[in-house]
Amino acid sequence: MSILSSRFLNIRAEFKRILPAQPCVLCGCMSHDGLWCAACDAAMPYFDSPHCPVCALPTHNGETCGHCLTHPPLFSRTTALFGYTFPLDKLIQGMKYGEQLALAHAFAKKLVQRIDKSNLPDYVIAMPLHPAKLRERGFNQSLLLAATIARELKLKLLPNACRRVRDTPPQSALPWKERKKNVRNAFCCDRDLTGKRVALVDDVLTTGASVNALAGAVSERGAIQISAWVVARTLPHSH
Questions:
Q1: 3-class DSSP string for the chain
Q2: From CA 72, how far away is CA 67, in angstroms rounded?
Q3: Suppose 179 and one of 54, 120, 209, 231 were both cysteines; which one would form an S-S bond, judging by CB atoms 3.0 to 4.6 Å apart?
Q4: pLDDT exceeds cutoff 70 at 170
């Protein structure tokens, strides 16, 4: 390590030390490292295991899984930050149902670090909520995530390009086999996306039915390369 690099790290460490600490959202200890402390960050379920590049389900050597080969979804790549297990699942629930909206910013900043900067899309689109659900919740956590990601990567956010036109039951309340039917024709896209590359942002990818339905809507409007960017991927052992 050069002298300049060493000096920079020392200055950075000193700067962090003098910043106001805040209680870690997981353990309660005072943290200079953001919403959760460095010790809790080390225990977070970062999604680092080999996985299918399309749907992000685990595969032996990171090859495309059999289901994506035989029944490819309408999105071509998934970037996931975490596996949807404890304690990340509790943080997601706190963001969505406990109005801990600062978590959306923290998740998005970390997800940006995982995104392939060599193949960025033209537009970023958040998973839309039905107006009734938006009125009930008061915010769309996926739009909060997408806004931070777009800002960090200097990409164009399209907050109103897509709409949820059917007020469907929550996917989490349904058996896996019924989720695809639940979101069929649930979305529409009002913007011409001919020849454009699009990233769809959501908090959790489980079966992929919602993202695939939204991908269908943007594909019908001409999008040619559709990626999914999600905070967490539900893994087989956590079905």
A1: CCHHHHHHHHHHHHHHHHCCCEECCCCCCEECCCCCCHHHHHCCCECCCCECCCCCCECCCCCCCHHHHHCCCCCCEEEEEEECCCCHHHHHHHHHHCCCCHHHHHHHHHHHHHCCHHHCCCEEEECCCCHHHHHHHCCCHHHHHHHHHHHHHCCEECCCCEEECCCCCCHHHCCHHHHHHHCCCCEEECCCCCCCEEEEEEEEECCCHHHHHHHHHHHHCCCCEEEEEEEEECCHHHC
A2: 7
A3: 209
A4: no
- Looking at domain 47-238, its CATH class is alpha beta
Short-list 202, 206, 198, CA closest to 229? 202
Please list the residue range(s) of the chain that carry CATH number 3.40.50.2020: 47-238
Q: Distance (Å, rounded) from C-alpha 124 to C-alpha 200?
A: 6
The sign of the dihedral angle between the CA atoms of 84, 88, 93, 99 is negative
Q: Read off the tokens for 215.
A: 């991908």
pTM: predicted TM-score of the whole model, two decimal places: 0.87
Q: Residue 76's closest CA among 110, 121, 46?
A: 121
Read off the tokens for 163: 């709409």
Question: Which burial class, exposed, middle or buried, applies to 144 when counting CB atoms under 10 A from its CB (0-12, 13-18, 19+)?
Answer: buried
pLDDT at 185 over 90: no
Report the amino acid identity of residue 25: V
Share of the chain above pLDDT 90, in %: 77
Whether residue 87 has a cis bond before it, omega within 30° of 0 = yes
Strand order in the sheet with 123-126: 77-83, 225-233, 197-205, 123-126, 156-157
